[in-house]
Design goal:
alpha/beta, three-stranded antiparallel β-sheet, 7 strands
């Protein structure tokens, strides 16, 4: 969960189908490689997905687990996600590190205010992003990671 100095959250548009007729907004992130810690994976993914190499990685604030069909193949995949609070002053997103999958799966990026997220009719992952983000922006950090649900 990357937040800038104005408490805007960085999200990427993701497409769940080949036709790109439906979409939802996701946080940057990705898989953990063998032998890699969760925070090392986060640093690598932030560099690859948005060119972010200097960030303050904060606490683990949310978790979720779900099963979904992979784009193109339809193969069912179980995903366990950890959301760390990452603070940046200001950042110009650089997607030049994207691999073929990311170029196919992800589209535009945007810095969203809390009000924008809460007023939007778009879908977000997690679905309760507006409510969860409100707590973080107001400084109410969970003492234990919150299970966000789907």
């Amino acid at each position: 969960m990357v937040l800038d100095r104005d408490n805007r959250v960085l999200l990427f548009k993701a497409f769940p189908d080949n036709g790109r007729s439906r979409y939802f907004w996701i946080t940057p992130g990705g898989g953990v490689a063998a032998g890699e810690s969760a925070t090392d994976a986060l640093r690598r993914e932030l560099a690859e997905e948005c060119g972010l190499v200097a960030a303050d990685i904060g606490p683990l604030i949310w978790v979720r687990e779900h099963v979904f069909a992979m784009p193109h193949s339809g193969e069912a995949t179980r995903q366990r996600e950890r959301f760390y609070l990452v603070r940046v002053g200001q950042h110009e997103v650089d997607v030049s590190g994207w691999d073929d999958f990311e170029r196919t799966f992800m589209g535009e990026h945007r810095w969203w205010t809390l009000d924008d997220v809460q007023a939007s009719t778009d879908e977000f992952a997690p679905h309760r992003l507006g409510r969860l983000l409100a707590d973080v922006v107001s400084g109410r950090m969970p003492s234990e990671p919150v299970d966000t649900g789907i």
